[in-house]
Amino acid sequence: MKSICLYFQVHLPFRYRRYRFFDIGNDHYYYDDYSNETIIKKLAEKNYLPANELLLKLAHKLEGKFKVSFSITGLDLEQFELYSPEVIESFKKLSKTGCIEFLSGTYSNTLSSFKNPCIFEKQVKLHEERIFDLFGQKSRVFMNTEMIYSDEIGALVAKMGYKSVLTEGARHILGWKSPNFVYVNAINPKMKILMRNFKLSDDISSYFSDKSEFDYPLIAEKITGWLEKIDQKEEVINIFLNYELFGELQLGENCISDIWENFAMLIAKNPTMKFATPSEIIEELQPVSIVNVPNPISWANEERDLTLWLGNDMQKEACEKLYSLGERMEKCSNAELHKDWNYLQASDHFYYMSTKNYLHNNSKNLSNPFDTPYEAFINYMNILSDFKIRLNSFVTEHEI
Asked: What CA–CA distance (Å, rounded) separates 100 from 343?
């Protein structure tokens, strides 16, 4: 029986206001509160609350046969608490059904896993504590920022006590192998690797929103048909999507919630398939082989690499200057600085600086508040300069 592992990502950073050069040293507040509140409330009303209501309905209706997992960052949880606390309550109701698994990750959706292991561990611990405090769950399954993974990152996560990592089933990594099996880390074979079926996941995403696609509109029977065509010997199909598919992307006259409800019903009745959480998968299935990932991969762009965040000199400079402050932050006890430090680490800020993304008119630019990568870079570096001045008043460079 094939296991269908369905994951959703929920993440938005705190957006920065236009922070000018003359603000440096004079104004220490960086955030666009109006945009942050407006965006979260809009998504809560049109997306998160109705989607969570649907999942709660399916959990009760299918009596444990429906399972889904979430990767929710700490930054989102903070914004929900500030602007739409009812979203937190709806996730708590879902958690109580026993049909939902909240995956572990980095609190701020950071790039720290390959920049600074100490900062990475603190980010993971902070996220782990937040999820447990709110939902009473402590998952042993980890999904890094943007599914970033390498052999070394997997081994590091294993040392932190996790049993499995989710990552992209990149074609250049798997070669002829299928992503629809459980694999193990090349350094620590005790660490199991679950790999996203990128073709199926991307097809579902595009068919929901792109009328030019051959099979548009997507309906539940089509998704189920795709799954049924997969070889019966293949054991697990990992489908990873942005949660906005439930409401932010609409199908005109076609109701997305109806499609997902029908899809869940079809899988629940199908004798050859079932829904499962990642924790259930790693307990039930044995790995088939090692997967070698010497260089970091992600689920982004055709190359499945890190170039959307570190592909140009602006991104690299901003990232290096940020993490160069890591040792000093270790010695700093100021709560406000640590809050801003967490927000500064969000990978989105580096994504906004991507010239690759800008030139190719990537659809994700819809979430980008800046007109050009250069504007994003200047704004971020101005904020970072002011942050460094504030940090100097607590811990100077000479104290390191």
From this structure: 27
Average pLDDT over residues 296-307: 92
Q: What is the dihedral of CA 51, 55, 58, 64, to 10 degrees?
A: 170
Indicate whether 212 pLDDT > 60. no
Burial of residue 271 (number of CB atoms within 10 Å: 0-12, 13-18, 19+): exposed
Q: Max CA-CA distance within the chain? A: 66
**Catalytic residue (choose from 45, 63, 121, 146):** 146
Percent of the chain with pLDDT over 90: 82
Burial of 220 (0-12, 13-18, 19+ CB in 10 A): middle
Rounded to two decimals, what is the model's pTM? 0.93
Across the range 331-344, mean pLDDT stands at 96
Query: Per CATH, the architecture of 2-291 is what?
Result: Alpha-Beta Barrel (3.20)
Q: What is the CA radius of gyration of the chain?
A: 21
396 pLDDT tier (thresholds 50, 70, 90): confident
Alpha-carbon separation of residue 199 from 25, 100, 169, 193, 389 (angstroms): 48, 24, 9, 18, 47
Nearest to 279 by CA among 107, 124, 145, 98: 98
**Average pLDDT of the residues in 386-398:** 90
Asked about 228 being catalytic, the answer comes back as no
Q: How far is CA 100 from the centre of its chain?
A: 16
* Cα 372 off chain centre by: 24
